[in-house]
Amino acid sequence: MKKILKILGILIVLFLFIIGTTLTWLFSSSGNEFLKNKITQIANEKAPIGLEFTHFKLGFSKYAFSITDKQKSQITLNGDYSLFTLNTNAQIHAAIKDLSPYEQLIGMKLNGGIGLNGEVKKNGGDIDVKADITAFNSLINADITLKDYNPKRLFITSKEGIKAESLLAFLNQPKYVSGKILLNADMDISNLSAPSGGFQIASNALSPNISLLNKNYGILLPNEPIKLAINGKAQKDSIITTLLASSSYLNLSSSNLQASLNDYATNGEIKISLEKIGFGGIMLKSPVIANINLKSSKITNQEATLALNLITNPILAHINLPNYTPKDLTISAQDLNLQEILNLIAKYTNATPYNANGAVNLNAKIDKINLDTLDYNLASKLNSTITSLNYQGIQLANNNILNAEINGDSKRLKTKVQSDLFDSKLLANVALKDYSPENVELDIHNLNLQKLAKLFNYAAEGQLDVKANLKNFKDSSFDGDFEIDSKQITLAKATLNALSGMKFKQDISLALNGSGSLKNGNGNAQIKANGKDLNVEISNVKINLPNNAYSADFNLNTPEIANINPLDMTLKGALSLKGNAAFANEIPSLSLQNKDFGDLDIKLANEKLVLKGTNLDVKKIANFTGNGKLVKGGILNANADLVIKGKDSQTILKNLNGIAELNSKDLEIYSVDIDALVSNFEKSSSISLLDVGAFVLAGPLGIAATKGTNVGMLGLNAVIEAKSVIKELEAKFDIKNGIATAQDVAFATKKTRLAAVGAINLNNNAFENFTIGLLDNKDCAKYSQKIKGTLDNPKIEITQTTISTAVNLATSLFGQIKKGAQNVAKPVIGESTEQCVPFYHGSVQHPKQ
Fold it and tell me: Could you list the residue ranges that cross the membrane (predicted)?
C-alpha cells in the first residue's frame, strides 16, 4: 500500500511539474509565439481575412492583445485575470475600417466599418459587457448581462438617434430615406424562448428621397416627412408589435403583429392607406386602401395575402414566403365592374367617363421565384366581357370580348391578345426574349375608325385593315413586312387641326394603301393616299434603323387648295409639290420643286439652304393668295444661299449666314398710286416713308396684302382706285449670325425711287440703324426717316397715317407685325444740294422724267 501511495505521489508531482513547466513555457516568449501562430492559423482557415496579431502578451495574471486584418483594422484587448478562477476585468477597443471582408462570417454584405469601446467583467459564471458602438455615423450604447453563462439582460439605446441614410448605406441599400431613428430595448433574456420586456423604434421625421424614388421607380411623393412608431413587447414565447406610420399621404397601422420565438412564425394584419402619390405619371386623387394579412406556422411556412381595394371587388394577391423568401405569387381579381374601372381611369386622366356594362377577370400565377437571379415562371389570363360601351351617343362596343394570355418565364414570355372590339377581328401575338421583342404578329380586319377615334376623343370614319409580321429583333433592327389598306378614311378637320397644330378648313377623305418590308433593319416602303381634294404618293422610302437614317420621294397635288388649306392665309387654286425628304446623322435634308408659278427649287442639305425662283409669275401668285384683283402682272426672281445650323428656331437664327435676294421688273399693282403718295408726302410731310416704301422690306406682295383697306385712312381717296407700275425692284440682304444687312434695297416707279439702308436683327426682330430715303437723281435722299424698335413695334413719326399699312406690307418677308408704332421723332427732312452725300449706291436706276 505504501508503495502504491508513493508511486501515486510521484505521478502527481510529475503531473504538476509537467503542468507547471507547460504553463511556464506558454507564458514565455516562445510559448506566446506558439499560441499566436496557432490562433492565427485557425482563424484564417475559418475566414481568410488576413487576421494577424501585432501584439500578443499572455502572462500569469495579465494579458494584452492587438489584432489587425487586410484593411489595417485594429482590435485591442487587455486586462487582468485569475489563473485559477479565470475571472477577468478587461478593456476592449476596436476600429474595423471595412466589414466587407467579413461577409463570409456575417452572412450579409455590409458597407463601412464599426468601432467599439467597452469593458468586460467576469466573476464566476456572471459576465457583464458594456460597450459604446459607433457605426453608420451613429452611437449605440449596449449593456449585456449573462448569469451562470446564460443570457440575462439586454439593454440597447441610441440617445442621439441612428441616421437612417447612413444605416441604409451600411446595409448596402440605396439611400431612399433620411432622418434619425431612436432605438431603445430593455429585455430580460434569461429564457431566450420566452423573454420579457420590450423595445421601441421611433422617428418624428423620416424624409423619403423623392428624386431617387421617382428616378428608380417612377413614384412621386409630396415633400413631407413620415412619423414612425414601433413598439414591441415580449410575452411568453412571442413578441407582440404595434406599428404606426403616418403622413398626409401614408397611413400604415398594425396592432397585432406577432412573432414566435420558438419557430419564428409571423402572424398579424397591416392596414395601409395611400393618397396624393403619383406612379408612372398618374396621381392618386382618392385614397387607396390595402390590407396585408401575414400568416404562418413556422419559419418555413410564411404566407402573406394582400387585398387591394381600388373598386368594390378587391384585387387579391397571395404569396408564399418560406424562410421569408418569396417562392410563388397568385393574383386573382374576379368580376371587376367595368364601369368602376373606367370611372377610375377617367378620374386620373381627367377624361369624360364612359357608360359601360361588363366584367373583367384576372388570374395569374408566378412561381419558381428566385430573387438572386430574378427568375420566375408566369401563367396569366385576362378575360373581359363588354356587354355595352357608349361614349357621347356612339356605341363603341356591344357584347364584345377582350382576352389576353401571358405565359413563359423570366427569359421568354409569350402574349396572345384576341378581340372583336370596334367591329374588327383582332389577333396579336408577341414573343419577348429577355423583356425585348423577339416576334410580333398583328392581324386586324375591318377596324371601325369612328369608334376607335371616339375612344380618344377624335373624329374619323372608315374601316382599316392592318397586317404586320416582325421578327428577329436585335439591337435597333429586325426583319418583317407590313400592309395597310382602307377603301376610304375621312378625318374631321377638328381632328386634323388637333393632331397637326394647323387650321384645316374642312374634312379630308382619302383611300389609303401602303406596304413595306425590312431585313436586318434595312428596307423600303410605299404609301398612297388618294382623294377628291388631295393626292399624296410617298415612294422609294428607304429605312435604315441601325443608323437611324430615312429617305423618301413624295408627290403632292390638289386641284383646289382652298378645300384643304391648313394655313391662316386665304389660298385658292391648284398646287403641286414634289421632291425628296431625308434624315441621316441627325440632320434633315429636303428637295422641293414647284412649277405652278414659274420655276421654284428649294434644297436643304448638309445644313445649307439654297432657294432659286426663276420667272415667277406675280399675277399667278396673287391669284393663288386671293389677291388677283390687286396685281395685273410682273415677273419675280428670288435667290437665297443660307447656312442653317441648329435644331430650334433660336439656334438657327443665331447661326444664320448667307445671301437672300429678291428682284422684279415691271410689276403692276392696283389700289395704290405710289407716285401720288410720294407727292402728298412732299407737300405735307404727313405720311411716313414706311407707308410708301414698306414693300422694300416686304416685297411686291406686301402691297397686295393690304388690299387697299388701310390706305383709305390716309385721307387720300384719290389714289385708292389708281395703279402703280414698279419698273424695277431690288431687295438684297447679306445675313451674318442672324443679322440681315441691306446690301441693295430699293425700287423705282415712273417718277419715284426709294431705298433703304441699315440692318434687321432677326434674333430679336429689331431694326439696327435702319433708314428709308426718298431719292433724287443724284442718289441723295431728299427726305429720310429712321426706323427704330422691332418689327412688332416699329418706332417712327406718325401724323394722319396709320402704321398698320406698313405693318401689313412688311408681313410677307419678315413675319407678323402686330402692334402700332409709337411717336419718337419728327421726320428728318433735308434739301437736295450739289454737295449732298449719296444715300444709295445700288443697281436700281432713277426714273427718267
Answer: 7-27
